[in-house]
Amino acid sequence: MNKKLYVKLAVTNIKNNSLMFLPYLFTCIVVIALFYTINSLVNDHALKTISGGNFTIDVMKFGSILFTVLSLFFLLYANSFIFKKRKKEIGLYNLLGLEKKHIRKLLILESSLLAFFSMLVGIAIGLVLNQVVGIAMSAMMKVPLTVSTISLLAIIKTVVTFMIIFMIIHVFNLKQIHSVRVIELMKGAQIGEREPKAKLFLAILGSILLIAGYLLSFSVKDPKLDLAEIITAIVFVVAATYLLFIAVSIVLLKILRKKDGIYYNKSNFTLISTMLYRMKQNAVGLSNIAVLSTATLIVLTTTISLYLGVNTMLNNSFQFDVSITNPAENGSEQQQLQAFIDKTKARYDVEITKAASYQGGQFAADLTGDGKDDFFLILPLEDLNKLTNENISLASDEVMLLKDKESATLQSISLDNKSFQVKATVDELPIDTSLADNTDANWMYVIAPLTGEFAQKLNLENSLTIYQDFNVQGDTDAVHDFSHAVATKAQAIGNVDVEAKSIYKESLLVRFGGLLFLGIFISAVLFVETALMIFYKQISEGFDDRNRFAIMKKVGMSDKEILKTIKKQTLIMFFAPLTIALVHLGAGLPLVTKIIGIAAMDNWLVVAGSGIFAAIIFTVIYGVTYIFTEKNYKKIVKY
Fold first, then answer.
1. Contact at 8 Å (CB) between 327 and 464?
2. What percent of the chain has pLDDT over 90?
């Protein structure tokens, strides 16, 4: 067979199977475009030059690996549906005289045409998308970000990665041809499933696992310590999802079949019979869709929450706009920086307010006697009196504590086997106490006389640190530029550490902006591939159901009744997984809030709002997919 005939036959096959190939091709193009965009950003120098950019690059690198795995898995999954539909066609070629080597050449040509077209269009779209994403990321991160127009390295990586993926898919197809006889190829698309048995034990087990998974997720207190519980909860919920569709759905359908008043209704009879006959195959697909939909919703909710919670994190981490720290022995450096601040604030047209300068030190010791070190900051009583204009007195062996859940019940603390009486607890201090809300360690704030025994045991007088906290009033950009100027000057002077809220915010926006975009990219891939799974599942069912509905029409079922049954079936097929995913999302929001709390973002309203927003967006796009798929399903079944 000459080459021109091969090409003509390959193109004709793709055109004749366009209903199956076009969604597959669309998915390939989307995945390739997103893959190129991520790798272009990873290799771009623009991100490396901004605060927090390296973190975003690391996240994008992880996303690139995740994209590769997801792409391989889902394209193989989609290809299996296409190949099953085409088995009869390939078997027919064999019967007409084409040898397997000819069929192999034909499949190689078809795969090459699809791969070349999808990579060409995907990379072309990626070039445009890369610029759009660069502009959007620049706006969301609040930093100037100019990405390269073309990344040769990203193009090479994209082409090589997807050539390997397409080769793996092709090898899978060849293996299918060589391992199946001609008669099996001819019947490949017609092989159905036997009616599954009702497995009451599995249905009960699924319900128990779901409840147990939810309860475990609710019981998590510290995500860092309770990681095993989180993983167990996820495994339980995923397993329960499969069992709910595989076992519970079948039990429910068989219960409905025993209800004469329901089952022997014309539309219900066809619906229940059709779904029950093929439920075993449907259930696995529906479970996959529910799990993927849940993953998409969780990823979107988490990344949106992190981005929107930046201000909450800042307020939890900073009580002042600028905090300056340096050892007391380096007082001259502090004076240089202070002179710079006094001189520079006028240039930026900003005012210094709520300034607090004090001495102290940070230490770790077992103060509470529980065998674990407590991190604590000691504030000399003399500095507290100076800041508050009070005249509080403490005995040499007395201390005061900043009030929190633990310190409120303490009558004394101990240091080096010496007990110190807690004379009082104070509700607040005129210094930055954000460390008290630190999620990595429990910080205590201790007030003690500089000449008292507690300070002496710490040798505080010889290890004092000078702290200076203040707020900055002025235009937002001016405050940001002033903070950068102070931090740059401190770095030049040396031995002085500066932390500024606006600089940290910039870093957070870059980090969480990158996470948000990666979350959107991953969600896009998950949803496109979920939609592809839904489409092929429904189309495959359409071809299988066409003969059944034709028989029902011959025995007296009207077109209106057929369409009504089709609509019911597609509604169940589509919205059962979505409903389960939304329930999983609702049950998982408390856990998401706790996990995000590790990043000092404990605003559950932000998480709930992000979850609702993600659910609405996902449901709308899901509904559009339903309308498109139902339309094609009706065409297949009706004609």
1. yes
2. 9
